[in-house]
Design a protein that fits this description.
The protein has a seven-stranded mixed sheet. It folds into two domains: 4-160, VC0802-like; 182-223 and 256-378, 3-Layer(aba) Sandwich (Rossmann fold). It is α/β, with parallel strands linked by helices. The protein has ten helices and 14 strands. The radius of gyration is 24 Å and the shape is elongated. The chain has helices at 16-25, 45-54, 73-82, 110-128, 182-191, 211-220, 241-254, 270-282, 321-335, 352-356; strands spanning 5-10, 29-33, 39-43, 60-69, 97-103, 146-151, 154-160, 202-204, 263-267, 289-293, 307-310, 342-347, 362-368, 371-378. The longest helix is centred in the first third of the chain and has 19 residues, at 110-128. It binds S-adenosyl-L-homocysteine (SAH). S-adenosyl-L-homocysteine is lined by residues 175-176, 178-180, 205-206, 208-209, 211-212, 266-269, 272, 295-297, 311-313, 327.
Length: 384
């Protein structure tokens, strides 16, 4: 079986540079971003485990089995068949083609691409494991999900190592109606200036299920985001169990215990506060984050130099529009006295600044799932 790998970490559009930065901070080798914003890196099994355990902003980590050009189905079959599949997939494993995608390419019929890929791998496995051609090979073992992506005739074939997307940390049992994905939330925290000095107050006044506060605390305390979940690679026979176990033990030691954090979350809806509390408790942050039922309009403080991160309602549904724009206006009025605080507000409302009453210092385009949103950033005044 393989010992070194070419790897790809996928992420939501716009977050790739954060993933690359995280990988470099993990001392991982040869991290590159290609002209299609894809993040590649190299390493061994430990690298795969480490990336899955520690990446906060990525969706998944994939092994790149092959990259080549193909314009005909014959070419596709032959080149997929040529790859050393038996070095990755033990006999008896399941290898579904979980995704086939073609963009701007000669080959564009995705179901055909999917079935040709499958046939080419089956044939390779039959040869490699000396099974008679025409007799199906068993696939009742561990799963190796294969993805094939074709872009302008250039094919990339990968095996997923992650399983459930990395945004699932294992702490969010309940999420309410419009949660932000954990990996997007982590990236937004990295975009703020709070991490430069995380003992400053941090407030999410529309906290919902509590994601921003939890991700902020996990970042500040250097808690490994994946420590409470499982990964697909753990099921693979050639992936020694102790690789991940050792990294988890090390991760527990790397957690900071020297910081006194001041993190609060509010929501008008008491049932969301209950959910937020139980989520924080699930990841061991019950004593770190203070959640309270409160209207954001009632937020007042004499503290200085804090950071607000908020993902208020967007008013997607008909009839909501008026109350939402009213909320944005009241937000502007409530935050106005907090001159030294920096505020980061995520919304899909293109006219947000006019309701809020102040032009953002900076705007950043992001995606909350498939919804295009903007992060409106207001930098606090420096304390003299
Ligand atoms: N980021 C959150 C989702 C926020 S959805 C998460 O990851 O779960 C917006 C939240 O704003 C909802 O939970 C809603 O109850 C809350 N909200 C609406 N009006 C509010 C107000 N005036 N004050 C405080 N919270 C409010």
């Amino acid at each position: 079986m393989k010992e070194t790998f070419r790897l790809n970490a996928t992420a939501a559009a716009g977050l790739e540079s954060f993933v690359a930065r995280e990988l470099r901070n993990l001392d991982i080798d040869n991290v590159t971003i290609d002209d299609r914003s894809r993040v590649f890196f190299e390493g061994d099994k430990e690298t795969i485990a480490k990336a899955n355990l520690w990446l906060r902003t990525a969706d998944r980590v994939k092994i790149v089995v092959g990259e080549f050009q193909a314009k005909t189905f014959e070419e596709l079959f032959d080149k997929v068949n040529d790859l050393d599949w038996e070095e990755y997939i033990p006999f008896g494993s399941a290898f579904p083609i979980s995704k086939a995608k073609a963009v701007k390419s000669t080959l564009h019929n995705e179901p055909s691409i999917q079935s040709i890929t499958k046939k080419a791998i089956v044939k390779k496995m039959q040869t490699a494991y000396h099974r008679p051609e025409g007799v199906p090979i068993p696939e009742n073992g561990a799963i190796f999900p294969i993805e094939i992506a074709i872009h302008k005739d250039s094919v990339t074939v990968t095996i997923d190592t992650t399983g459930d997307s990395l945004f699932k940390r294992g702490y969010r049992q309940e999420k309410g109606q419009a949660p932000i994905k954990e990996n997007t939330a982590a990236a937004i925290i990295m975009m703020t200036n709070w991490l430069a000095n995380p003992v400053r107050p941090f407030v999410d006044p529309t906290c919902g299920s509590g994601t921003f506060a939890i991700e902020a605390a996990m970042l500040a305390l250097n808690m490994a985001p994946g420590i409470n979940r499982e990964f697909l690679f753990e099921q693979w026979s050639w992936f020694e169990n102790d690789i991940l176990e050792k990294l988890k033990i090390q991760a527990k030691k790397l957690k900071r215990t020297d910081l006194e954090l001041d993190i609060q979350g509010f929501d008008i809806d008491g049932s969301m506060i209950d959910i937020a509390k139980s989520n924080a408790l699930a990841i061991g942050l019950g004593h770190v984050i203070k959640y309270k039922q409160m209207r954001l309009q009632d937020f007042q403080t004499s503290q200085l130099d804090g950071v607000i991160v908020s993902n208020p309602p967007y008013g997607e549904r008909l009839g909501d529009e008026e109350s939402v724009t009213q909320l944005y206006t009241e937000m502007g009025q409530t935050f106005a006295p907090l001159e030294t605080w920096s505020k980061y507000i995520l919304t899909s409302e293109l006219e947000f600044e006019s309701y809020y009453g102040v032009k953002a210092t900076k705007k950043r385009k992001l995606y909350n799932g498939t919804l295009r949103v903007d992060l409106y950033q207001y930098f606090g005044k420096r304390i003299k």
